[in-house]
Design goal:
The complex is a heterodimer of chains A (about 110) and B (about 900).
Chain A lengths: L5 H13 L5 H12 L5 H14 L2 E8 L6 E8 L1 H18 L5 H8 L1
Helix pairs in contact in A: 1-2, 1-4
Chain B lengths: L9 H9 L3 H22 L1 H44 L1 H29 L11 E7 L7 E2 L6 H8 L3 E8 L6 E5 L2 E5 L2 E3 L3 H4 L4 E3 L11 E5 H7 L9 E4 L12 E8 L12 E4 H7 L13 E6 L5 H15 L13 E6 L19 H28 L1 H14 L3 H38 L11 H27 L3 H5 L10 H34 L9 E5 L4 H5 L1 H9 L4 E7 L11 E4 L6 E9 L3 H5 L3 E4 L9 H4 E5 H7 L8 E3 L7 E8 L14 E5 L6 E6 L4 H15 L8 E2 H7 L2 H35 L1 H9 L4 H35 L10 H28 L2 H5 L3
Parallel strand pairs in B: 6-11, 8-10, 17-22, 19-21
Antiparallel strand pairs in B: 1-2, 1-12, 1-13, 3-6, 3-12, 4-5, 4-9, 7-10, 8-11, 9-10, 14-23, 14-24, 15-23, 16-17, 18-21, 19-22, 20-21
Helix pairs in contact in B: 1-2, 1-3, 2-3, 3-12, 4-10, 4-12, 4-13, 4-23, 10-13, 10-15, 10-23, 11-13, 12-13, 15-23, 15-25, 15-26, 23-26, 25-26
The chains are: A alpha+beta (about 110), B alpha+beta (about 900).
């Protein structure tokens, strides 16, 4: 199993959740909100590219005419592998936490 | 009201767009722009701008890494395709790599050689500030001389503050000196030098103090080499050496020298290598006259200049210096004719204009020659690569087509093919390094150098490697890369490209270039070797075979008993005759003295050799008129001389025999001509024959020449040594054959002959590799055509001639093109010799036949296979 980083995980979830509207800005906003940290666009692109390389996401480049001059957006979509990776991460986390009830935190704290 | 348009900072956008690939640029920009607009609307332009800038700057590292990762990803792909291609076409790869590797190895070897020659004297810490004083004396036999009167050095130091240090270095001709330590004989070249030598030059001491080692006139310092040679188990410091020199020169001075220091060996790339140094003061002590401004046998003067000083300024002051010191400011002396100037230390080795150098120099012409040969060979290798790659481009055409359709840009394809050639070059360079390592010992024995090859601690060599990689990479990679990437996918995939003739003209042109280079090298090889052969076999006018010579100049014991020794030697049946002379006939040397001509007041410059009664007999020199020296005429020993025909002719006397006259510049000696000898080559063949005078004297016996017959040479030498030892036991005898000495005078030429032959061979090898590759490509390409021709009734011969004609045509053309150029070059080179061969027409024919023959042989191998193949197979091919 490939373990992906927390940021990559967050990005994958963001892309998944954003569905058709997953492009740089929206992903960044989503991730920044969920991770409670402001990511720079650069580090986001870097992680996106890593995911591209690993084949978890694919991208489509669209062009639309907003004002004068073309603008384009790169939309990201989750691939099958990407979905599988997310599932794996989730399963992995579950297995990590297996047998540890929520209450254990309180017990430990109280000790 | 028009709303003011919000735009992000232009500079930041520019940076952003530059950092991304074209396809991503727009979407990234628009992402940024979107956030920017939002921010600007919510929090104002200023904050938005600030945000934009920080975002861009913070993104830079990540973007760069991103960029690199993707390039590496692409490069990995390129490497993989390149590697697969290499593996799939093993034959072509082999030819390509071998051709390049051999070319590179040749280039590296020559560069090592050139680097060595250029590195002379550069190892001194102050090399760029050390100058040698030279004297220009227009109208003299040797107009530029490095022998400077000995008062010059101290005067320079006293007069000019910018001269930090000045030293005199002197050596008596080519002499070695004989020292005695206990029973041990030390026979080495002795240098006289000022203590300042160690300030000027970077010579470090192992033992002793360089500041004081040469203070005592009877101190002596040795190099590590000599210390190890003669004092293996002892500490040499303080030991006393006795000079065995009973010649009058040293009369009056002491003969015991105490060793006061040991210095590190001077590197091979020094224009003089000292092993044994005695203070210059010692020379002054034993020769009082040496402290004058007189000419002749003067030391070399080296100065160390201050950092800020300009040698040109100093040179300007020499004129007044000469007036003041040499001519004591007297009006009668007039203006000094001689001009002193400064020669940078680092240029001495490659400057042949200055006479009386300590050791012989290297002619910079050869450096240029070898460098250009190296380049040419490298180019021949590159041409192979270009030819084979473009020829095979059709094979790659499909790949290129697919790549283009999938969306590869031309730049990417160019990059792909360039990286492919760089891989190949890298492999070739590795192979060539191994080749150089293997070949270096042979190359060293060929050139008589001790070059070493370790790129790790040779910065220049590393730079050379980088140069080779880029030069070869771009010169041979560029054309194929651009050519292949220009192919239109539609034409490839529709099959039109296969028949395209593009690149064909260029390939032929390159073959012509390759074989032109080869042909020039072959013609040069032929001419140079013929000339060397001519020198070796040239009738010099004297016999130089079976003559054993030994230098006995310092051997006073033997010289005093020479007549008895000669009688003893001649008793051996294998020894035919023995003579003594001042110099050997191959280099009578000496400055010409004036022989009075018929016309009053005119003098013929004539070389002078001092010989004995048997000289003409040993060397088989014929007498044209008059008689030889004879013991029957007692008066001979006083003043009889022989002259050669040229001298006789130049003087234009009516009857030279019996003529008496006074020789200019020779102690006012009056001599009488008793005979005329046939002209012989008294100097190297670079010089024409010149007037010569042979005198008879008992005191000039520097060389012993012994003529032997061919039987039992070793026994004869043993006998000679034994006999001579009886007369003078304490002398290390060295015997040489005159032939060897004779050959040594043409060492540079022989070296050149060998180098050119080797490289001619290499270039023909590489060229034929290329032809072989092209031939196999052509036959492969036309397999079907051959099959059809055969089915229709073509004979094997006709098919062969079809291919051979096509390919050898260009080799022939190459030969024709180079004929005028090589004629010109060789004619020029031969001008160096007063006696030379002419450039015969058959050299060209032979070179042409040779290249064509080898080319035909190489091609035939492939063509015969193709032509004799069963047409059924070839038609089924593919």
């Amino acid at each position: 199993m490939n373990i992906i980083t927390r940021l990559e995980e967050a990005i994958l979830i963001a892309i998944w959740r954003l569905e058709d509207n997953a492009y740089g800005v929206t992903i960044n906003k989503y991730v920044s909100r969920s991770m409670k940290k402001n990511y720079s666009m650069g580090s986001l692109y870097f992680s996106l590219n890593q995911l591209l390389r690993k084949g978890y996401v694919r991208k489509t480049i669209t062009q639309f005419y907003h004002e004068k001059g073309g603008r384009s957006r790169t939309y990201y979509l989750l691939t099958k592998d990407g979905k599988k990776a997310l599932q794996e991460v989730k399963a992995y986390q579950k297995s990590l936490w297996k047998g540890i009830p929520e209450i254990a935190f309180d017990v430990k704290k109280s000790r | 009201m028009k709303k003011k348009k919000e735009t992000p900072p232009a500079a930041a956008s520019w940076i952003l767009s530059k950092m991304n690939s074209r396809e991503e640029r727009l979407s990234i920009l628009s992402d940024f722009f979107e956030i920017y607009e939002e921010l600007a609307a919510e929090e104002g332009t200023f904050r938005a701008r600030r945000w934009y800038w920080t975002q861009v700057l913070r993104s830079i590292p990540m973007l760069i890494i991103n960029h690199i990762i993707w390039s590496v990803e692409m490069l990995k792909n390129y490497l993989k395709t390149a590697w697969r291609n290499l593996k799939r076409h093993k034959g072509y790869s082999f030819i390509n790599i071998t051709g390049l590797a051999v070319g590179m190895a040749a280039f590296i070897l020559i560069m090592l050689f050139v680097q060595h020659e250029l590195s002379f004297d550069r190892y001194h810490g102050n090399a760029d500030r050390i100058y040698r004083v030279i004297e220009e004396n227009p109208g003299q036999a040797s107009p530029i001389s490095a022998e400077i009167p000995s008062p010059m050095a101290p005067v320079l130091m006293d007069e000019y503050p910018e001269v930090i240090s000045a030293t005199r270095i002197f050596k008596w001709g080519r002499d070695k000196k004989l020292f005695l330590y206990r029973k041990k004989l030390i026979y080495e070249t002795l240098y006289y030098a000022d203590p300042e030598t160690f300030d000027v030059f970077s010579i470090s001491f192992i033992q002793g103090d360089p500041k004081t080692a040469l203070n005592d006139p009877f101190s002596i310092v040795l190099s590590k080499r000599l210390a190890e040679k003669y004092f293996r188990n002892e500490n040499p410091i303080g030991k006393v050496l006795t000079l065995k020199e009973s010649s009058d020169r040293h009369a009056g001075a002491g003969n015991n020298y105490q060793i006061s220091g040991i210095f590190e060996n001077m590197p091979q790339n020094s224009h003089f290598i000292m092993d044994m140094i005695v203070p210059f003061k010692n020379l002054i002590l034993s020769h009082n006259t040496r402290m004058t401004w007189e000419k002749g046998n003067n030391p070399h003067t080296y100065i160390l200049l201050d950092k800020r000083a300009d040698p040109k300024d100093l040179e300007k002051k020499f004129h007044s210096l000469l007036k003041k010191y040499k001519y004591q400011n007297t009006e009668a002396a007039g203006d000094p004719k001689e001009k002193y100037s400064l020669q940078p230390l680092t240029s001495i080795h490659l400057d042949t204009h200055v006479s009386s150098d300590i050791t012989s120099n290297y002619d910079v012409k050869y450096i240029y020659l070898y460098s250009s040969i190296a380049f040419l060979i490298l180019i021949v290798g590159c041409i192979n690569y270009i030819n084979l790659t473009t020829a095979r481009s059709m094979k790659r055409g499909k790949e290129v087509g697919i790549r283009k359709i999938v969306g590869a840009k031309r730049g990417q394809l160019v990059r792909q093919f360039l990286s492919e050639s760089f891989i190949l070059i890298f492999i070739a360079l590795t192979v060539s390094s191994i080749l150089v390592r293997v070949l270096l010992p042979h190359f060293n024995s060929m050139t008589g150098k001790s070059l070493s090859f370790n790129p790790i601690n040779n910065l220049q060599l590393l730079l050379g490697f980088i140069f080779i990689i880029f030069f070869v990479g771009f010169s041979s990679g560029c054309y194929p890369a651009f050519y292949i990437s220009s192919i239109k996918p539609i034409s490839i995939l529709s099959g039109k490209f296969v028949k395209s003739a593009k690149g064909f003209g260029l390939r032929n042109f390159l073959v012509v270039a390759q074989f032109s280079i080869t042909s020039i090298l072959i013609i040069s090889t032929l001419v140079v070797n013929k000339q060397l052969n001519f020198i070796q076999n040239k009738d010099m006018g004297y016999n130089r075979e079976q003559i054993i010579v030994s230098n006995i100049e310092k051997n006073m014991e033997l010289r005093n008993n020479i007549d008895a020794a000669k009688t003893e030697l001649i008793k051996n049946p294998n020894i035919l005759s023995v003579c003594c002379s001042s110099r050997l006939p191959n280099d009578i040397g000496w400055k010409p003295r004036g022989l009075p001509a018929k016309k009053q007041g005119e003098f013929v410059p004539t070389y002078t050799g001092i010989v004995d009664y048997d000289f003409l007999d040993v060397y088989g020199i014929e007498i044209v008129d008059g008689r030889n020296f004879s013991r029957d005429f007692p008066s001979d020993s006083e003043r009889a001389v022989l002259i050669n025909e040229m001298a006789a002719k130049a003087c234009r006397w009516d009857s030279p025999i019996g003529k008496e006259f006074e020789i200019i510049d020779w102690d006012g000696r009056t001599v009488k001509i008793i005979g005329i000898i046939k002209n012989f080559h008294s100097h190297s063949l670079h010089q024409p024959k010149s007037p010569l005078l042979l005198g008879l004297s008992s005191s000039w016996k520097a060389h012993l020449s012994i003529k032997t017959n061919t039987a039992n040479i070793q026994e004869t030498i043993d006998y000679i040594e034994k006999t001579l030892k009886e007369f003078a036991p304490n002398y290390p005898y060295e015997f040489q054959f005159l032939d060897e000495i004779f050959g040594r005078a043409y060492q540079t030429e022989q070296e050149m002959g060998k180098i050119i032959s080797t490289f001619a061979f290499l270039s023909i090898f590489i060229g034929c590799l290329g032809l072989f590759g092209l031939a196999s490509f052509a036959t492969e390409q036309r397999t079907k055509e051959i099959g059809i021709r055969k089915v229709l009734g073509a004979s094997v011969e006709s098919i062969m001639s079809l291919f051979l004609k096509n390919m050898t045509k260009w080799v022939l053309v190459a030969n024709f093109i180079t004929w005028p150029l090589s004629y010109f070059l060789m004619h020029k080179w031969l001008q160096n010799y007063a006696y030379r061969i002419s450039v015969y027409w058959w050299f060209f024919i032979l070179a042409g036949a040779l290249t064509c023959g080898i080319a035909v042989l190489t091609i035939s191998y492939k063509v015969i296979r193709a032509a004799t193949a069963n047409p059924v197979d070839s038609l089924r091919y593919e």
